[in-house]
Amino acid sequence: MSCGEPHETDCSEVLDHLYEFLDREMPDSDCTKFEVHFGECSPCLEKYGLEQAVKKLVKRCCGHDDVPADLRAKVMGRIELIRAGEPVPDRDVREDPRPATQE
């Protein structure tokens, strides 16, 4: 998505890193660049607002459940693979490849 207007920070960069901005997982200088961009670009501001609303809704509806430690470890492991540019397996390599049996 792009508004078609030139910006110091390109729309594609903003949208590629939108969740990092929402979660405040980027340097303050990058946050400032994104805030300036949102002030100039209504399509990106609209997308930001939508994603922010979804995040708040999920937090309100699901924010009270504890995440199982093994699930958290699996998710974090996949995130690290993605960040390192390594291929991510279709399934957890630690899973038992045999089909589950019914008791």
UniProtKB/TrEMBL annotation:
<protein>
    <submittedName>
        <fullName>Mycothiol system anti-sigma-R factor</fullName>
    </submittedName>
</protein>
<dbReference type="InterPro" id="IPR024020">
    <property type="entry name" value="Anit_sigma_mycothiol_RsrA"/>
</dbReference>
<feature type="domain" description="Putative zinc-finger">
    <location>
        <begin position="11"/>
        <end position="44"/>
    </location>
</feature>
<feature type="region of interest" description="Disordered">
    <location>
        <begin position="84"/>
        <end position="103"/>
    </location>
</feature>
<dbReference type="Pfam" id="PF13490">
    <property type="entry name" value="zf-HC2"/>
</dbReference>
<dbReference type="InterPro" id="IPR027383">
    <property type="entry name" value="Znf_put"/>
</dbReference>
